[in-house]
């Protein structure tokens, strides 16, 4: 299901111009890469599904961002919300 989501987003992005494609790829690489780093540090605490979902979410975020600053803020906000949610769920 996540792969179909990513393919759909890629198809919709390719219908546009080249600049949103570059931003979308950067967003996917940024968000996917950050969660891959977290996965390497956290071990099995972060599932592969979370990592796979980060790539299409990063693609969408990069595609819809107005500038590079929006992309960085969106990724940082997503990671902050995920961290707070994990802390609340763990009972800390």
What does this structure look like?
The protein is mainly alpha-helical and 92 residues long. The protein has four helices and no strands. The longest helix has 25 residues, at 18-42. It is globular, with a radius of gyration of 14 Å. The chain starts with a helix and ends with a helix. The mean pLDDT is 82.
List keywords for this structure.
92 residues; single chain; mainly alpha
Task: Please report the distance between the alpha carbons of the first and last residues.
Answer: 33 Å
Q: H/E series, N to C?
A: HHHH
For the sheet with most strands, the description reads: none
Give the overall average pLDDT: 82
Compute the number of helices: 4
Q: Unreliable runs, pLDDT <50, ≥5 residues? A: none
Can you summarize this structure?
The chain is mostly helical. The protein has helices at 2-14, 18-42, 48-64, 68-90.
Produce the secondary structure layout:
Layout: H1 2-14, H2 18-42, H3 48-64, H4 68-90
Helix pairs in contact: 1-3, 2-3
């Amino acid at each position: 299901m996540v792969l179909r989501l990513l393919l759909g987003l890629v198809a919709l992005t390719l219908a546009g111009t080249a600049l949103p494609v570059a931003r979308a790829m950067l967003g996917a690489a940024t968000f996917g890469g950050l969660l891959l780093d977290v996965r390497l540090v956290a071990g099995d605490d972060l599932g592969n599904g979370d990592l796979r979902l980060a790539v299409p979410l990063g693609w969408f975020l990069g595609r819809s961002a107005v500038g590079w600053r929006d992309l960085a803020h969106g990724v940082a906000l997503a990671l902050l919300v995920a961290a707070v949610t994990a802390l609340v769920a763990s009972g800390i």
